[in-house]
Design a protein that fits this description.
It is a single chain. This protein is of the alpha/beta class. It folds into 2 domains: about 30-45 and about 75-250, Rossmann fold; about 250-280, no CATH class. The protein contains 12 helices and 11 strands. The strands form 2 sheets. It has a 6-stranded mixed beta sheet, with helices on both faces. Strands 1, 2, 4, 5 and 6 form a 5-stranded antiparallel beta sheet that branches. The longest helix is centred in the last third of the chain and has 18 residues, at about 185-205. Residues about 280 have low confidence and may be disordered.
Length: about 280
Amino acid sequence: MPLLSVKNLSVSFDTSTGPFKAVAGIDYAVDAGEVLAIVGESGSGKSVGMLAVMGLLPKTATVTADEIRFDGRDLKGMSDKERRQIIGRDIAMIFQEPNASLNPCFTVGYQIEELLKKHLKLGRRERREKAVELFKDVGIPDPAERLSSYPHQMSGGQCQRVMIAMAIACNPKLLIADEPTTALDVTIQKQILDLLMKLQADHRMGLIMITHDMGVVAETADRVVVQYKGRKMEESDVLTLFTRAQSPYTRALLSALPENATGNRLPTVSELMSADGAGASA
């Protein structure tokens, strides 16, 4: 049985011009210890689908699914209170913008200790010791001193490490990383990816990596789901995807990589799909 199983997930939003379907009948599954990459352009519904699974979308969103099961439990049929006992403890998410996710009014130590207080019921001294241990695990220098820092006093890479520390604080069974290296320089990107893969292996977590970066996919994933305009275009193991992609959209994504460029200007994905005979509506 998969750790997470999602079948026929759809998400739509009401707009001034009528309903907008951000996700249209997507299926996901990820096992314990497996890395699943969900890849596609911005706006393809990658993050929205995961937020729907976690129950974090606003009430204005309409979410339907035949099945959303985690660790044998029916998330779809749970009350908000029951779901809150799982989210943040058994399922954790690293959000795309750490500076937007961390509260600027509180120290990073306070924020991680509040998480430990809620989910693990630890006392004050135990929470501090655990926070220092977590900061050390994710490579934050001078961890005890850093607990008293505010987010604006830390670099982007350090804030991302804080978010990772918070995400793994309760030893989750499933970790969702939403574009975890966005806006970081190349050296820090490599450090963050290496850290995530080490933590995933050490704790044997299921890991869902949401990204538009095919290099990240090649480096981290066991299996890949390719999305376009809210629909699943293709799913395969990572080697098959890079050597024998079936979907015209996937082939277009791969052809748009800089190393595959044949001229001075990179073609757009839509241009490549049109050349493949698939059209932009594939």
